[in-house]
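FIELD: query
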Amino acid sequence: MNLANKITLARIILVPIIMVFLLVNIDIKPLEFGDDYSITYNQIIAAIIFIIAASTDGLDGYIARKNKIVTNLGKLLDPLADKLLVAAVLISLVQMDKLAAWMAIVIISREFAVTGLRQIALLEGSVMAASKWGKWKTAVQITMIISLLLNNFPFTFIDFPFDEIVSWIAVLITVYSGFDYFFKNKQLIPVQ
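FIELD: result
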């Protein structure tokens, strides 16, 4: 169990902690700024933990490559940790009525589909590298989640629906990156 794998495991452990803060109702008066903005302390804490967890995504891989400690366990856990983190928070946001269920379903379905394609590639003895669209997808999804967790802060003060716009962009880039992965790796898909 090297440092990179410990960081990945920490990201997995943070998932249920984030969900507790998002889904357990603690009866404390929310933080309010004027008449236009209100946020629960739970959401603030969950957003901070999510930001910490999301920021470890690149860190564990960087440490593993730099120190030449890439392991099969790390290759398995890293994408699993990413999917668990994003899926759990998206489902929580649907439960909180902050995200349309169909958007969460589209994003999570793409993740399952690409993960399945990666598994086929591994069985064929090849590795699917992350594409630029996959990296953009991750960045936009994280931005979307943070904006939804923070109730569109600070854009709510200028009446700009950043959270809605970034949600649509996240869905579009997610779908496009999924098609991109399948198109570039169509030789892995059995047609018989």
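FIELD: remark
The beta strands are 31-33, 37-39.
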